[in-house]
Amino acid sequence: MQPNDIIIRQATAADLDLLLLWREEVLRCVFSIPADTDITELMQSNREYYEQALANGSHIACFAEEDGKIIGCGGLCLYDEMPSPDNPTGRCAYLMNIYVRPEHQGYGHGKRIVRWLVGAALSRGIKKIYLETSEAGRLLYSFLGFSDMKDMMHLTFK
User: Fold this and answer.
1) 49 CA to centre of own chain
2) What is the model's pLDDT at position 139?
3) CA distance 39 to 46
4) Which residues of the chain have pLDDT under 70?
5) Domain regions of the chain by residue span
6) What is the pLDDT of residues 2-28, one digit of tens each?
7) Which CATH number fits domain 3-143: 3.40.640.10, 1.20.140.10, 3.10.25.10, 3.40.630.30?
């Protein structure tokens, strides 16, 4: 299949159950969570997040469809940070959940998803987009113009 053979469509609140199925697939893949591990509480938290964020417009999700079948997904969290010289409006986006099922990888579908989501951010006046990537995704994001950020650190608690 060629990248032009897929359609990217925005997910809506009516897609909530479908979004959750895909979110679980992404989480299990990215975090190597075994199929028999119970993540019911985590998925309930994701349900609550989607319900609120889709309603208030702080999250944009999309699906990549080929012949009416979903083959991939992606998401964009919209938020504000303190305005700065490199981002005078303070509006930001966090690109996440870019995922294409393995049998559909290598055809440019991930690029189409990312470009669609970047377009959604730009159409809202957002010009600063962050993401975290795996080594496997680094080439894709570099190709699309993303660059590494110097001097970034994070603190997580378990």
Assistant:
1) 14
2) 85
3) 11
4) 1-4
5) 3-143
6) 545 899 999 999 999 999 999 999 999
7) 3.40.630.30
